[in-house]
Design brief:
Blueprint lengths: L3 H21 L4 H4 L10 H29 L11 H12 L16 H21 L9 E3 L7 E3 H25 L1
Antiparallel strand pairs: 1-2
Helix pairs in contact: 1-5, 1-6, 3-5, 3-6, 4-6
Length: about 180
Amino acid sequence: MPVPELELYRKQFESVAADAEELTAGLTEAQFNWRPAPGTWSIEECMGHLVMVGNSQVLHLEQAIEKARSRGITGQPPFEYGMIDRYIVGLTERQRFSAPPRYQPLHGQPVTGVLPSFLHLQRQLIGLVEQSEGLDLARVKVGTPVSRFVRMSLGMMFAQIAAHERRHTEQARRVREKL
């Protein structure tokens, strides 16, 4: 039987992919790269940032899932998550941070390069969600791209990624509304 929590994450990544297609539909390259004000990001930069961070997260997820499978770290819901994991996800939902320099997106990238990369990332995340079926989502620990010292549970890492993507998708939506 599918784990409801994993089904929720799968649906969130599918929704973000659909939002990205909707946000970029019919845009010219100039519109895709337009910044509403100096120091703000374009739709391209929002999506490019998510691709950069997401590619790093995918590597961490793949490693954690493979290690958990080899060690037999399985479990069934409900999963209990620690306070720090829940705090990080909540902070991601409501707090805006400056992106570290290594995750600052390039400006001026074509929609034909960024959008396919973004959609591919969503398919990868959905695949990793599916691969997580049967694992103990609370006990499996995943490295984070922010710090080698911060590790999150597998379930909360999916929640954090989805929250980060929603936040930047909404940011891109606000740019689109100003076009």
